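Operator note (shift B, R.M.): manual run for tRNA pseudouridine synthase requested after the automated queue skipped it. Running by hand, logging everything below so the morning shift can see what happened. Input copied straight from the record, untouched. If output looks odd, do not overwrite the archive copy; leave it for review.
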Amino acid sequence: MRTKLLLRVSFLGTNYCGWQPQPACAGSLPSVCETLQAALRRAGVTDGAPVAAGRLDKGVHAMMQVVTVTVRRSAPAVPGPARDAELAAIATRLNEALPADVRVLRALDAHRKAHAMSGAGAKTYTYYAVDGRAGGSDGCRRGCWVLDAPLNMAAMRRAAAAMEGEHDWAALCTAPASQATRRTVASIEVRARRHASLPLLGCLCAPSGGGRCELLPPGSCGACGEGGRESGREGEREGEEGEAGEAGPVLELRFTGGGFLRHQVRRMASLIVAVGTGREPEGTVRLALSAAATAPAAESGDGAEGEAGLEA
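Run finished. Output pasted below as returned.
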């Protein structure tokens, strides 16, 4: 009989062409999908192709990508401690077959009709930025947008609020002309974090070149190996919000919606930060969302963290 497994996957996108194969990367960079499929085969789980809740671009990292795969079983799985142990063993075998920058956080049984993409009720993309003038950890350089100017948090929150709801995003995406460009953004959160750590990247607040976290009391940053709660488990991130209006040291931009267009989120993030640094007036947001908009905002670099969740 055929049934489904649901995998919660975290990965660093630096060495991949994205979730799915890209013609432009053929022969140079593998896709995460191909890498996971090969591991599923080597671990004896399934020969089927994994289906993800969202297709992430080249260089984008995932805190928790939801993936469904079809497997064959001789009998239905019976919930209980024995089955939990079997699922934990599947995750262990997959991680042994995967490179260190792709991790299966958990394996779960799913309904036989479960489909990660069509069943996704919401998708969340997060950008992290740090003040590069004060230095940053190696993780920051790989997973964060490094800024060189102070930020006006109030202006950024107003810009984000103007983007919420249903709009035509034609000026802030690279969708083909044949694709409808109206999308609804459920929420945009703009936060100043005193500390943050991410799966696989570790602490974003350690000194440049490595070392221990300098923002939290000794022993309280699990990502730095000093004990405390281990961040990144099950796709969680660790952080404390700063004072109202505080600009750093870690900026978090969190976008949630039912779906996004190609490059939409990175251009939204770029415009919000441009407003925060004063390079763009706040009115640029409404102009970009109006029929008068003719050009997209400048793009940021890599550093988006994506996660997608299945609808219950």
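Quick read of the result: The longest strand covers residues 182-198. The radius of gyration is 20 Å.
Leaving this for review. - R.M.
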